[in-house]
UniProtKB/TrEMBL annotation:
Membrane spanning stretches: none
Ranges where the Beta-ketoacyl synthase-like N-terminal domain occurs: 39-169
Name of this protein: 3-oxoacyl-ACP synthase
InterPro entries named among the record's database cross-references: Beta-ketoacyl_synthase, Ketoacyl_synth_N, Thiolase-like
Length: 354
């Protein structure tokens, strides 16, 4: 089977990540339970007249996809695969509010049409005039990993040469209030610097879009090789360490071969135990990295962890703000990523430098 390479990356997040020439050179310290994406100038990617009719999630997705394709030096791709947890949430809320406000009568269909989860993938295809495979995964916090696994299999089986994959989610005002009511968002204000030390339930919520071009050939812009991806629905804390060892064994690796592990700690004391189980045992002597204190929590935040890992592999540098422990590593060859959300949708992703 062919190897799978990540040839370009693009990320719009709560940090200034859309400029690929930088790697968290200037960190924004957020001081709230809900933080919004730092957006690029959209007119550089989308005609202003078209952008005015687009929801925020669509604009972030289209802009990030164009950045990724440009860096990969491509005009088009063979397939577009997106992952999203909640889709175009603001238009969904707008349509549902319209049903209530208008007593289920005289509704305009625009918000409904733009609220479907595959709107981002469809809009990207229209922009590129891509008539190939186009699929959207809606698998909660495993949505992006499902897209990554799909693309990886297609490239390995020689069904495609270049595939654009991405994850997009946006914040919606009403849904954010609901998350606060059920304590998925912290009640007290937290900061970027204190989130991971929090001892309360919930996390800092955010939004963003991340896109990557996967290919079967290396090129000058290549960041890393995708060695393996595995996803699970539910696991107990006691099973995680055993499954990590099994996952590495399947790829002929030991714990000592992993130069860094990227973890999804989000400050929720009820569920960070999954990560603590690893950091205190099998990865006790491994460089530990966290990213959600910078980017917040949402269904497709995990590709921002991949963005972090890819930048580390490409630049061979690790910003201090990402370090969870004081372990020093001189070079990075293998990086393992582990993510879960509220005890469900566990994923392992293994990357290797080229």
């Amino acid at each position: 089977m062919k190897k799978v390479y990540i040839n370009s990356i693009a990320c719009i997040s709560a940090q200034k990540t859309f400029d690929n020439s930088e790697f968290l050179d200037e960190v924004i310290i957020h001081e709230d339970q809900v933080v919004y994406a730092v957006e690029p100038v959209y007119k550089d990617f989308i005609p202003p007249a078209a952008a005015r009719r687009m929801a925020k999630g669509i604009k972030m997705g289209v802009a990030a996809s164009k950045m990724a394709i440009k860096e990969a030096n491509l005009k088009n791709v063979d397939a577009i695969i997106t992952g999203t947890g909640m889709g175009c949430l603001r238009d969904s809320e707008k349509f549902l509010s319209g049903i209530i406000d208008n007593n289920e009568q005289f509704l305009t269909p625009t918000s409904f049409i733009q609220s479907t989860h595959n709107t981002v993938g469809g809009q990207i295809a229209l922009e590129l005039q891509c008539k190939g495979y186009n699929f959207t995964y809606v698998h909660g916090s495993n949505s992006f990993e499902s897209a990554l696994l799909d693309a990886k299999l297609q490239i390995e089986l020689d069904e495609a040469q270049n595939i654009l994959i991405g994850g997009v989610d946006e914040l919606g005002e009403h849904t954010t209030k609901l998350h606060k009511l059920i304590h998925h968002i912290k009640e007290e204000k937290v900061t970027t610097n204190t989130l991971l030390e929090s001892k309360s339930s919930g996390s800092m919520f955010s939004e963003g879009a991340s896109f990557f071009v996967l290919a079967n050939k290396k090129q000058e812009s290549t960041y890393a090789e995708v060695v393996s991806v595995k996803i699970y629905n539910t696991l107990s804390q006691n099973e995680v360490s055993e499954l990590v060892l099994s996952f590495l064994k399947e790829n002929d690796l030991d714990i000592e071969d992993i130069d860094a592990v990227v973890l999804g700690n989000n400050g929720d004391f009820k569920f960070d135990g999954f990560y603590n189980e690893l950091t205190s045992t099998i990865f006790n002597n491994t460089q530990q990295i966290c990213y959600k204190h910078l980017f917040g929590e949402f269904n497709t935040v995990s590709p921002m962890g991949i963005w972090v890992a890819l930048k580390i592999l490409k630049t061979q540098t690790l910003p201090e703000i990402l370090k969870l422990n004081k372990k020093e590593t001189s070079s990075y060859k293998y990086i393992l990523l582990y993510n879960q959300y509220r005890g469900e949708n566990h994923s392992f992703t293994l990357l290797k430098t080229c």
